[in-house]
Design brief:
The chain is α+β, with helices and mostly antiparallel strands. 31% of the residues lie in helices and 21% in strands. The chain has helices at residues 29-39, 48-51, 81-88, 109-115, 122-128, 133-148, 188-203, 233-242, 263-266, 336-359, 364-372; strands at 2-7, 13-19, 57-60, 62-63, 66-67, 72-77, 153-161, 164-165, 210-217, 247-252, 270-273, 276-279, 287-288, 291-292, 297-303, 314-316, 323-325.
Amino acid sequence: MKLTTAGESHGKGLFAIYEGLPSNLKIDIDEINHYLNLRQSGYGRGGRQKIESDTVEILSGVRNTYTLGSPVAICVKNSDYKNWQQFMAPEGCDTTQKTLTKVRPGHADLTGLIKYDQTDARNILERASARETAVRVAAGTIARQYLRALGIEISGYVKSVCGVIDPTVYAFESLNSAKSEPLFMLDKDKQQKAMALIDQLKQNGDTAGGIIEIRVKGLKSGFGSCMQYDKKLDARLAFALMSVQAIKGVEVGVGMQAGNLKGSQVHDEIYFNNGKFVRKSNNAGGIEGGMSNGEEIILSASMKPIPTLMKGLNTVDYISKQPCKAASERSDVAAICAAEIVLESVTAIALAEVVAERLGGDNMAEVIARYCNLA
């Protein structure tokens, strides 16, 4: 499978071509739109979410809700394009308006201007924007539906917001209830503290990041490989999560904590009960030697605070080279809930690729039969 995306934040829309999907996968468009809606939710979001109401349009590769085996093309249109057409139209527009030269720390602005030989950071930020993830959520929901047909489910929640941490370990079955919470947190007391902190940050023109946990249940052992470095499952999942804007760290299982513990405290001892191998702990996070081991996959990702601060950080104007305050594009105070949905989606995309590589199959009946035959 291969996913390619295109589109700008204030352009006509976000687009994707998804290649390699088998035929006869039923596509639930309502579920895609549900996850697109969740991506726009969450406490601390900004004005853009009031303008856009994302929905998916399937352009090719699906007939009567079933995939054909041909590339699937999808689109999430930008409702706000009508207000930006005079500045963004590829057919011709006034590029002297809506320019940005007060480059923002933490963004792609400055490095992109130099790399792509530009003078207006608008030509960089429009593609670098996290708005791009809307179409990855749409494609990721299709990948989720592919995995679900095999009995593989993905969920997650927010563990912390700007230092307000929930240390509780939750059962997989309880995670989906987080989606009905304003910050996708399962501890209501912690959530109230985090919401109060976001309110304070908003008053101060500041922003917040957080920690997200993603879990996968139902993936059998043996996906990924120990034979080539680029086929390791943990490496591919880490790549997927790190490809999301603002993600600065990824852990599998106990992650960084493993470096501070003894081996006897880290490695999951193996037993053989009732005809199968079992582990009584899951510090490995479901991945050993670059391969799934049949346990739940546990991933954690750290999202940095949003770099567009309304109060503006110290920077330099790219053209004049004079010191100034960074431009304050319309932004959120916290987008941790959006990031959680995006991370679930990119996890689904990466896992679907790994599963398809091992199972093959031109139609879903073949794929399901091959998965069922695995130990």
